[in-house]
Amino acid sequence: MTKRTRPWGYSDLTDAQLPDWNLHTDTVSVRGGLARSGFGEGAEALYLNSGFTYDSAEQAESAFKDETEHHLYSRFSNPTVAMFEDRLAAIEGAEACFATSSGMAAMFASVACLVKQGDHIVASASMFSSCYVVITEILPSWGVTFELVEGTEEKDWAAALSKPTAVVVIETPSNPLMEIVDIAMVSRLAHKVGATVVVDNVMASPVMQKPLELGADVVFYSATKHIDGQGRVLGGAILGSREYIKTKVLPFARHTGPSMSAFNAWVLLKSLETMTMRVERMNSSALKVAEFLAQQDGISLVSYPFLKSHKGYDLAKRQMGGGGSTVAFAVDGDKAATFKFMNALKVIDISNNLGDSKSLITHPASTTHRRLSPEVQATMGITENLMRLSVGLEHPDDLLHDLKQALGN
Ligand SMILES: *Cc1c(COP(=O)(O)O)cnc(C)c1O
Fold it and tell me: Do residues 264 and 281 share a domain?
């Protein structure tokens, strides 16, 4: 666990009281960032307060001058949120973290804090539809230009990254088609033109992919997905160097207010304790589901990174610890046949969420990616018979049974 630099929690302990070896992720997931209040509470305390008080006017002044560390206001920082940030940073192997109210708040703040009018963004074309709207509509309306590239093609990246670029955004695996982008290759090309590489690591989760180790600069999450993973709260997180969080993210977030609530941080701290177990189980079940679907009659496509038939299989095996919890697949037939199949499922729920303990199925063309034009949907491979299945924690045999009966096989 990282030694805390704040004046509470672990920094009150002597070095001799702290483990002097590298702890495993499982251990960091339950103990990282823990800062007990002095009452000796076992579980993390919920500091459900908006403001903080000072012993003296002098202390307030020095806190505002950043001379002493003291929480000022929960829009900037909060003890429960800080525990979540420190724990997730320890799991990710990042120097620092800032927690946000949702994944989109994390995406927007992580990129917007780096760009000004006239700057250029390069992004992989296949991405979560709200990220697509931020890059292709919202930021351009403020004078930030963009170019989208076919994420799997090195030559397309090389061409796009021959121009001065402020930020590169990649989502890998992509939502919903599970395409794989080579994080190390893109980071190398991006750094040559001085760009900051931001990775949407939602689909892989902190358990299965470490973009910072592969050369990326910034990672963001929708904590709503695998981090909570139990369908309860929204949340997000931005991770990167101390310098980036301190000089870019914090000033931006402090004044624009995308902060995470203490209550959500408290829920998410507990979720982190079981995240590794949950994600490993979801990944192993997703592989079983993908292998099963690939052998079924009536299925025209299965896209899962750890299936040998996947275009990015070798790369996925190198860069990920598991193939993810999401399987994209299509039935033979039109939209009506697809809806009929979805409606026949008895265990798997129809929902636009993912990374949940309950298995969820989505029809991207009519829901999550509906806002994209038919042409853009086509370039992303989103057809009317495509579905995205987020594999949960049910027994995998019950999921296979459910899929089989809905296919009528
Ligand atoms: C869900 C999701 C987001 C946005 O997260 P919210 O918590 O819903 O705001 C961003 N990127 C990907 C890949 C996602 O799946």
Answer: no
